Records
---
Amino acid sequence: MLKIVVLISGTGSNLRALLEALRSARTNETPILAEVVAIGTDRDDANLALAEEFGIPHFVVRPKDFADRTSWGDALLAEIQRYEPDLTILSGFMRLVPPAVVEALSPNLVNTHPAYLPEFPGAHAVRDAIEAGVSETGASIIVVDNGVDTGPIIERRRIPVEPGDDEASLHERIKIVERELLIGTVTRVATGDLNLKECERA
C-alpha cells in the first residue's frame, strides 16, 4: 500500500478529488493500492475539514511560529516523517519548502501546477497566462526540486484558453485536468508503472 501525505494551503479541491477517487476505487475489482495517511498545512484557514470528513490525521505547521524558514522546514519535515510516507504531494501548497525537506523526500515529493511547465512557473501561473494572451496553457505534475517549478516533469497536458476566459474560469478548467493527472500519477506510482527516479527534466 502506497502511503501518502498531502500538503495543502487552501480549499484542497485537488485533494478532495484524490480522496474520492481512492474511496471509490475501494469498491472496484482493481482498487488503487494507495492511502492518504495524513494531511498537512501551513495555514490555519486551510480546509482541514477534509481531514475530518475522511477521517484522516492532520497537522498544521505555521511559519510564524518559528524563528526562520529553516527551523519551520525542520518542523514540517518532522511532521511528515511521523507518518512514514512513500509519497508526499504538494497540492495547492503555496510555500516553497526548504532544501532540507526536498533533500529528505525527493524524488518522492511531487507538486501539481496550473500551467504547461516550463511555461508560467510561480504562484500566479493562470493570471500570467491570461495576461500573456496565449492561446493555450496547461497543467503539470512535477518532482519537486529547489527551484520554482523547475523539477523533472512527470506528466503535463495542454489546455486551450477559450475566448472570454478570465483567471477564474480558466483555472476551473485547469483544475479538472490537474486532478486527472494527480490521480493518474498516484495510480502509476502505486502499481509500479512509474519510477519517480527516472523522470526527466524538460
Note: The longest strand covers residues 34-41.
---
Amino acid sequence: MTTTALSRRPVGELLRQWREHRRLSQLDLSIQADISTRHLSFLETGRSKPSRDMVLHLAEELDLPLRERNRLLLAAGFAPEFSETTLDAPRMTAVRTALRQILAGHEPYPAVVVDGRWNLVEGNVSLGLLTSLVDPELLAAPANVLRASMHPKGLAPHIVNLGEWRSHLLGRLRRQIAFSADPELEALYAEIRAYPCDQPEPEEAELAGAGELVVPLRLRHDAGELAFFSTIATFGTPLDITLAELAIESFFPADRRTAEVLRSAARTSPAAL
C-alpha cells in the first residue's frame, strides 16, 4: 500500500492496523498504555478523537518507527513531530563527520552506511573489495546493498556459502518488515526471494554449525577464500527520521588469513581494495 493511501486513512484505523500488526488485543494495549479498553475502542472506531499527546503515547507503546508516528499525527489532524533532514543539510554536518570517522577508522576492513531501505549512503575505501565483484549497473544510484549482494550479477556468484548467507539476509529483512511494515521492503524481500540459489537454504535456527558463533560471509576472491562477520550500529535516541533509519554495517575478518590479506592489500595499494 502506498504512503499516500495510508496517510488518507483515519487515525483510528491506522491505530487498529498497527495494534493488530503487533499482535496485541485491545485489552493488551489498553493495559500497556494505561487507558481503558473502552477508550481505546472509541479511538479505533472514530467515536473519540485522540489528543496529540495520546497519539504519541500510543505510538510509543506500539514501538512505531518515527516515520509512522508522524503519519499517525497527520491522520489525526496534527503537525508532524519528527523532522526528516537530508544528510547533506548544514545541520547534519556533525553527523556526516561522525559517519566518515567511523568508516575511515574501520580501515582496512569494509564498512558501509545504508538507509532504512538498504540503499547505499556511503562506504569506506575497503568496501571496494566487495563492490569490485558487482556489476556496475547494480551500483548505479540509488544502489541497494541487499540487491547488490544477492543478485545473480552481484556478489551472489562469489559467495561460497550462498544458501546460508542468503537465509541470514532474508531473515534480517523479515524482522525489519515486521517492525516497520514498509511496503517497499516487502517488495524488496519478494524480489530477492525470487533470485536463483543453487544451494540449500537452511532455516535461521539451523544456520550456526557446531562451534560457530556467527554466520560468516565466505567470499571467493583472487587472493583466495575470505571470511567475514559483520556488526550493525545505529544512532542512539534519534529524533530525526533520517538518523533513525541510518545503519552502519562493519565487516570484520573471521579468520587470521583474511585479516592478513586485507592489511597487506592496504599497505601495498589501498586503491586496489
Note: The CA atoms of residues 132 and 206 lie 31 Å apart.
---
Amino acid sequence: MGKNFDIKDASLAEYGRRRIDWAEAEMPVLRQIRERFASERPLKGVRLSACLHVTAETANLMRTLAAGGADVVLCASNPLSTQDDVAASLVVHDEIPVYAIKGEDHETYYQHITAALDHNPHITMDDGADLVTGVLKQRPDLIPAMLGSTEETTTGVIRLKAMAADGVLKFPVIAVNDSDTKHLFDNRYGTGQSTLDGILRATNVLLAGKTFVVGGYGYCSRGIAERARGMGANVIVTEVNPIRALEAAMDGYRVMPMREAVKVADFVVTATGNKNVLDAEDFAVMKDGCIVANSGHFNVEINIPDLEALSVEKRQPRAFVDQYILKDGRRINLLGEGRLINLASAEGHPSAVMDMSFANQALASEYLLTHKGKLPNGVHALPKEVDREIASLKLKSMGIMIDTLTPEQAKYLASWEEGT
C-alpha cells in the first residue's frame, strides 16, 4: 500500500485521542494491567496482529499491548465498525499501524487483513477468526513461528472449534469469549445496551408497547431481550435449542418459531452466530414497517439477497436504514446493512464492560507466551484463576468488597468426611 497504515483522515487524530482517553477512565482493570506491562515488558519482541473492531476501547487494548513490548498492527474485523478518529489517533499519536476505514468495501477489507498478516505475527488476535482463517488458507508459511491466537467472540469460537474438529487448526487458540468475565458481562450487558443504542440511534422509534423479536437466547440475545423488556417492549424469543427455549420461557418471554413471531413483530433482531435466521419465507409474512437488525458478528444472519429479490424498490429514509419496498407495497426496514448494528450506527459496547474483555485479551497474549510449546493445537480457555483475578480487580475498582472463606470453611469445602 506504500505506507504502513491505511486510514481515512489523519487530521481526525486529536478528537480520536480525546475519545480514547475518555474510554480509558472507565477501564481501570486494563489500566492496571498496562501499568504492570509497562514495568515488566512481558511481550517484548512479540509481533502481534489484531483484527478487532477499531473503537476507543480497542485503542486502549492496543496501547496496553504496546506498553508490554509487543510490536502491534491493527485491522478492522468489520467494514462498518471502525471509528475513523480512533484509527487516526493510533497512527498519529501512538505510532501503531492501523488498516481500517469505516465503510470500506469487500476488497479493501481483505487487503487490510493481508496487510496485518504481512506483519508476520507470532500472535494473532481475532474477533471473528478472519486472521486465523487467513493464516490457514493463504499464509501457512506463518505457522511455524506462531505462538498462537486469541479469539474475542462467539462466532469466532464456533469457527475455530470447527477448524479443530477438522484437524486443520495448527496452533493453540485462547477462546477469550469462554472466560466468565467476558461472556457473562460483555455478551449480556454490553450487547444488550449497545444493540438497543444502535437501533435507537438509527431509527428514533419508541420501543415501549412494541413487539420485539429476538433470534436466539445465548448470552448476547438474552442481554438484548432483557434490555428491550426494560424499555417496555413485548419480547418474543425464538430458539432451536430446547434448553435455551425453556429457559427463555421461564424467564417470562413468549417463545415461538421465527416464522410465527415475524407475523406480529415490530422489531426483529438476530444474534445467533448462524446464517439465514431470517429468509424469504420470513420476509413474506412480516408486517408492514417491520424493523430488522442484526447483532451477530457476520451479516449472514439475515438473508439479504432474499430480501433484495423480493423487493421492487430500495430507499434510505435515514442514515443506516435501508427500506425495501416489496411487490405488495409492504416496507421492511433493514438497519446497518445487516451488520453489527451496535457498531454500525452506534459506538459498540460501553468501556466499562470492554475493560474486562480486553483484560482477558491482554492476559491471553501473555499466557500464550509463557506457555510457549506447552499448549497442544486446538481451542483453550484461560485458567479460572485469571477470571477470578480480573473479577477481583473489577470489584475493587467499583469500591465493592466481598467475604473470604475462613480456614475452617475452606477445609470443609475441600473435604467429604464431615456430613450431617
Note: The domain at 189-344 is CATH 3.40.50.720 (Rossmann fold).
---
Amino acid sequence: MQTHLTALLFLLPLLSNALPAQDPNSNPNAQSQTQNEIQITPKQIETIAPKSKSCDSAPSKDECATAAQAAPAISASFNKYKVHSRAEQAAVIGLMAFESGDFKSNRNHSPGVPGQGTRNMQSPTYNQKYAASLPDIADAAKQASDADKVLDLLVKNKEYDFGSGAWFLTTQCEEDVRKRLQSGSEEGWKAYIRDCVGTEANGERREYWERAVNALG
C-alpha cells in the first residue's frame, strides 16, 4: 500500500502538467461577442475606393484618410449604430467613398453650402442634428456661431467623422427604405439614395455601390 501511495504522489504533478491550460479567451460568451463584432478590412475599403491606398494625390492632406485608417473607424460606426446588414453596410460605405472622393476629403470645397461635410458629406442641417446626438460635443455645437464651427467639432474626431453615414441611415431613413435596402437589390439601393439621402442614383454612385457589394460579399 505504501508503495502504491508513493507512486501516486509522484505522478500527481505530472498529471497536472498534462492537463490543457485554461485559455482566458476561451469563454464561449467572449467568443460569441467577438464573432458578432463587425470588422471591415482595409483591403475591402481599397476595393471599394481604389484611391484610398495612400494620400499622395489628396488635395488636402489633413483631411485625407487611407483605407487602413478608414476601415477601423467605419467598423466602429457599424458596431455603435448596430448596422449588421451587409447590404446596408455596402450602401453606406459606397456613398461615403463617393462623396468624400475615396476618403480624401471631409469638407465640401466646391462653391456650395458652408458647413457641409463629414465623410457622408452631410448638409449643415444634418450635421447639427448629428452633433446634438453626441453628448460630449452637443453643448458646444449648440453654442457654435456658424455651420463651419459645428463641422469642425465633427471632423476633428475620427469616430464622429466616419460615423455620420451609419448615424444617418439609422436615424434619418424610414423603416420601409431600410427594409428595401436590406434586400440587397438595386431597387433597394436606389430607394436609399433617392428617398433617404435625397440625391440622384446615378452611374458613378452605382459603381461605388457595386464595388462595395462585391467587396463585402
Note: Residues 143 and 150 are 9 Å apart (CA to CA).
